[in-house]
Amino acid sequence: MPVKNRLTSIPIHDRTKPERGPREAWPERVEPKARAADGLQFLAADSPSDETWDTHRDYGDQLSEMLAAATMPGPAARVRDCAEALFFQLRADSGTGELKWKLRSAPFCHYRHCPICQWRRSLRTKAIVMSALPTILQQYPTARFAMLTLTVRNVPIADLRQTILAMNKGWKRLIERKDWPALGWVRGVEVTAGEDCTAHPHYHALLMLPASYFSGKAYVPTKEWVQRWRQSARLDYDPICDIRAIRVKAVSQVPSEGTDARLLAISSAVSEVAKYATKT
Question: How far apart are alpha carbons 42 and 194 in whole angstroms?
Fold first, then answer.
């Protein structure tokens, strides 16, 4: 059998629990660094560069316990069993030809708030955007980029769904305005927890702008963004908004020769937006 067809299955956090129920008592949280504790097998023990899998699997365990405690056995079981076995295949690197282990398949749960699935979704989003960027930069060589943040006030957890739906409508009204300056955009929603157990949803958007935006009448100051977002989202208060230009690093700061400094700077911004597939 050719080497490229060899597969390996690596279980992570294999607790060997018989017939686990969704509300079964689980052991205390295991930190990723404690790889050998309690007989657990961590992917990082075989592949140190993949320790991120252990971290997200650990977060998934915590979420599963919370869902079980909230009498949601179905989602709890889905998240609990997500990616418990990973199937890898040896594949040649497209650039160097070196054989490396690449993920072939895994039983993902696709639950919206699963840490593993949302992490994978963010990677996929970044890959899609980055694959299109070279062509976009070629078509719009003078375009500039900026990171836009739009917020609303904290809301009770029970009102979070309706608040985000209202924000989505507000965003649609914002980009349909005649004075909308962007040539294109990528947007993510982040939800952080307030100290008073409220939710703070807000947008992070990467905007592609014409070169003329930062000079003359085309420029939109932060105060104007506040008023535009207030009108579009139909708020009765001035929300907090922020916009910052993506600055290209000096040539001396670029990691290696042949690296496009502009693409590198935008890549960092894309990563920032993509990671908010669902962040809590």
Answer: 33
Contact partners, residue 72, CB within 8 Å, separation at least 6:
none
- Per cent of the chain over pLDDT 90 is 29
pLDDT tens per residue across span 105-127: 888 999 988 989 988 888 888 88
Residue 48 CB partners (closer than 8 Å, separation 6+):
none
Please name the residue that has the structure tokens 């993949």: 50
What length does the chain have?
280
Kind plus residue range of the DSSP H or E element containing 186: strand 184-193
- Going by C-alpha positions, the residue among 42, 19, 16 that lies closest to residue 27 is 16
Beta bridge pairs of residue 205: 148, 187
Q: What is the pLDDT of residue 228?
A: 97
Describe the chain by its helix, strand, coil percentages, rounded to 5.
Answer: 45, 20, 35
**Mean per-residue pLDDT, 236-263:** 69
3-state secondary structure (DSSP) of residue 240: coil
CA distances to 10, 17, 27, 34, 36 from 39, in Å: 15, 12, 12, 10, 6
